[in-house]
Design goal:
The chain is of the alpha/beta class. It has a single domain, classed as 3-Layer(aba) Sandwich (Rossmann fold). It has a seven-stranded mixed sheet, with helices on both faces. Strands 1-2 form a two-stranded antiparallel sheet. Helix 5 links the parallel strand 4 and strand 5. Helix 3 runs parallel beside helix 4. The radius of gyration is 17 Å and the shape is globular. The model has no long low-confidence stretch (mean pLDDT 94).
Length: 241
């Protein structure tokens, strides 16, 4: 996609989401905080979230207070779960989001990640919190049994840049939006008729890829911080006739 078409696609997505007059479409220089984030992820850490003890191994995304995981949790806590029966989390990392839903929602829940280390972390964290979660090692939807879900969650890697290390590759970077596009295409095939998929984007994401998948998009959560840096949780549903 050339620069002109990319800019036009970005503006189109923000218009669809109702954000066009609120945020800037240009990317920000976030090299310094990004480097600090990579360094933090390189060390194992333990977190206490909503009464749950969650261990994050080195190299697996950490659910810190300023993380996108916590951003998702703040919004998920406010959701009405009574109409949701089946949940899938893609790229679950150490499992913080799935653990919260398993502890607080009455649903059948699957959590997946491409990383075997993440899969083991989810199993460990579920066991130490006495929770039952079906955990699957999968590249996106590839190894997920054929079924449809009421709610599909993906706390996506946000930054549109080529990864320079394993932490960036598995947790932080989505060059050209290829991972987000693959998720949306998979969700399109796996949502129930009235189901909802949610995925993260930010100012430095290749969020223009939303235009390439025919779903109905809306904003589920939004934050503006860091001198103009913004991030959002986008809801995606099947088009209604």
């Amino acid at each position: 996609m050339d620069i002109g078409n990319k800019q036009q696609a970005r503006e189109s997505v923000l218009e669809t989401l109702g954000l066009a007059r609120l945020v800037d479409t240009t990317t920000m220089d976030i090299a310094q905080p990004h480097h600090a984030l990579v360094e933090r992820q390189a060390q194992p850490a333990r977190f206490l979230i909503d009464g749950l003890t969650i261990d994050a191994p080195a190299g697996i995304y950490h659910p810190t207070q300023d993380s996108s995981t916590e951003f998702f949790l703040r919004n998920i806590r406010g959701m009405r779960s009574s109409a949701i029966r089946s949940v899938l989390e893609i790229g679950a990392g150490c499992g913080a989001i799935s653990l919260y839903m398993a502890a607080n929602w009455d649903v059948a829940l699957k959590a997946s990640d491409i990383s075997p280390l993440a899969v083991e972390a989810i199993k460990h964290n579920a066991a130490q919190n006495n929770l039952e979660i079906e955990v699957v090692q999968s590249d996106m939807f590839e190894s997920i049994p054929e079924q449809r879900f009421d709610f599909i969650v993906f706390n996506a890697p946000l930054i549109d840049k080529m990864p320079e290390n394993a932490i960036e590759q598995y947790s932080l970077c989505d060059p050209n939006g290829a991972i987000t596009r693959a998720f949306l295409r998979g969700a399109e095939r796996r949502l129930t008729e009235n189901g909802l998929a949610i995925v993260s984007i930010c100012r430095n994401s290749a969020y223009e890829v939303l235009n390439s998948v025919d779903l109905q998009y809306s904003v589920v959560g939004f934050e503006l911080s860091y001198g103009g840096f913004w991030r959002a949780i986008v809801g995606a549903r099947l088009p209604q006739d």
